[in-house]
Design brief:
It comes from Pluteus cervinus. This is Phosphoglycerate mutase-like protein. The relative contact order is 0.17. Strand 5 and strand 6 form a beta hairpin. This protein is α/β, with parallel strands linked by helices. The protein has 14 helices and eight strands. The chain is 40% helix and 11% strand. It binds 2-acetamido-2-deoxy-beta-D-glucopyranose (6 copies). The site of one 2-acetamido-2-deoxy-beta-D-glucopyranose (NAG) has 6 residues, from helix 9. One 2-acetamido-2-deoxy-beta-D-glucopyranose binds next to loops.
């Protein structure tokens, strides 16, 4: 037993040294390890694929960006739960494994809800990237039209994005935020308008009961007397990304968990979003309908037609919903972006994710879909006389089978519009079910 512990410690130390010998991005130390890609919706943004422009002889004529706020502190609810688990861990009688020894003197010092500086930086970088990529669409009198949901971290992410555009353009283009949509009113950038929508607690709970207990058992063996449960294990895993993005270092909590543990955690994020506002939630996709109808209005240059979450007053005025811009940028939340993907038909699944365990070939991976600073970009593309639509998530071109796209992922504009019947029909009666 003792020998096994010593061997395991030596092996870990060797592996740790090997890891640390690899080249590091000194500015953001936790990005030196690929582990952050397993942090699900708490992963910092990274491109899933390098950006590829549309085919030659085509040009982009309009861009519609919807972006998640940047990295943040835990929400106030999870902050309370995480702190309770940290206190349990600290109350252990002893810390046997060297990886957990730090816990004795660890002080929890994170805020709640707010954007962290690293999240602001990634928002600035996104603005710079988008200016470099799409700057030809910016002209003096055609600034990007920017809207934000009213959550403070969302507005600050939008402001930091506009700062990125301003700095990348050497302050030639300084777009303001034109509209802030209150999260207590009609808001197409938040999932705040469907009181009857259910939650994913059943599915995530079922999965936690499977992957969580062995992790808790290991931590309890390393820290006898802590009496950690599967819920504590979940809270402490989530502290790895939160502590890392807050302090821009690789949190000591990350080293408590194996790649398998993180895969379990990532799958819990996949289940959470699928059954929260995705295809597994009967009233999930309908919450994305308002945004899709706004998108169709912009793509076709015709007034918004929607009876769901839109603010009709704002959307019927050219001041607050113009149709003559070339770049539209909206700032939102992960749950809302999932609803929008589902309303559009992105990431279709042959089978629902099973709460008893992941399919390793699944394409529903929230780390790709809604990391911090996640981006969905709908490009309107002109090729000769014809207009097309292309959709990118994390810079990866989406296949758009639902409107007959070929290998280049482009659908004719008319076919794209036709494919969005669920939204054009205001969710086929689902929106009413949000209330009745
Ligand atoms: C924790 O702090 C105490 C008092 O400063 C110190 O003696 C101890 O070595 C520290 N433990 C660890 C694991 O850093
Ligand atoms: C960017 O976000 C940070 C919060 O992390 C905020 O303090 C700062 O004011 C924002 N920048 C702009 C230009 O608003
Ligand atoms: C767009 O329309 C608005 C409202 O009619 C007008 O004030 C503005 O100048 C137009 N902008 C461009 C770039 O055409
Ligand atoms: C619509 O937007 C206007 C302008 O911001 C606001 O005064 C009004 O309260 C909003 N109404 C709803 C229901 O969202
Ligand atoms: C931890 O669990 C053990 C065994 O169930 C129990 O005797 C002990 O009182 C618990 N300790 C705490 C701090 O809850
Ligand atoms: C807000 O949305 C509700 C539900 O669709 C709708 O009845 C109401 O007219 C909307 N209000 C505005 C100002 O658009």
């Amino acid at each position: 037993m003792l020998l096994a512990s010593i061997l395991s410690f030596l092996l870990t130390t060797i592996l740790y040294c090997i890891h640390h010998a690899t080249p590091a991005d000194a500015s953001v130390p936790f990005l030196e390890k690929n582990q952050y890609k397993l942090w699900a919706h708490y992963s910092p943004f990274y491109p899933v694929e390098p950006y590829h422009p549309p085919p030659r002889f085509c040009s982009i004529t309009q861009v519609n960006l919807i972006q998640r706020h940047g990295a943040r502190f835990p929400t106030s609810g999870s902050s309370v739960r995480i702190q309770a688990s940290v206190e349990k861990l600290k109350s252990a009688n002893m810390f046997i494994d060297p990886r957990i020894a730090f816990a004795a003197n660890y002080t929890y010092d994170l805020g709640a809800n707010d954007l962290v500086p690293f999240g602001a930086t990634q928002s600035v970088e996104a603005g710079q990237t988008h200016f470099k990529r799409y700057g030809h669409l910016f002209k003096n009198d055609i600034l990007p039209f920017v809207r934000s949901s009213s959550g403070e971290r969302v507005v600050l992410s939008a402001l930091n994005w506009t700062l990125g555009v301003a700095t990348a353009s050497k302050h030639t283009y300084n777009p303001p935020i034109s509209v802030i949509l209150s999260e207590s009113l009609n808001d197409t950038l938040d999932d705040n308008m469907c009181p009857n929508a259910g939650s994913s607690d059943e599915q995530t709970g079922e999965w936690l009961d499977i992957y969580g207990p062995p992790i808790a058992a290991r931590l309890n063996a390393w820290a006898p007397g802590a009496n950690l449960t599967a819920d504590d294990a979940f809270n402490l895993i989530s502290l790895c990304p939160f502590d890392s993005v807050a302090h821009e270092r690789f949190s000591p909590f990350c080293q408590l968990f194996t790649e398998d543990d993180f895969e379990g955690f990532a799958y819990s994020g996949d289940l959470d979003k699928y059954y929260g506002t995705g295809y597994g939630q009967p009233l999930g996709p309908v919450q994305g309908v308002g945004y899709i109808n706004e998108l169709l209005a912009r793509l076709t240059g015709k007034p918004v037609q929607d009876n769901t979450q839109t603010n009709r007053t704002l959307d019927s005025s050219p001041e607050t919903f113009p149709l003559n811009r070339t770049f539209y940028a909206d700032f939102s939340h992960d749950n809302q972006m999932i609803a929008i993907y589902a309303a559009m038909g992105l990431f279709p699944q042959n089978a629902a994710p099973n709460p008893t365990g992941p399919n390793s070939r699944r394409t529903w991976r929230v780390g790709h879909m809604v990391p911090f600073s996640a981006q969905m970009i709908t490009e309107k593309v002109q090729c000769g006389q014809k207009e097309y639509v292309r959709v990118l998530v994390g810079d990866a071109v989406q296949p758009l089978e639902f409107c007959g796209a070929g290998p280049n992922g482009m659908c004719e504009l008319d076919k794209f519009v036709a494919s969005q019947a669920y939204s054009r029909n205001n969710g086929d009666g689902d929106f009413e079910k949000c209330f009745s």
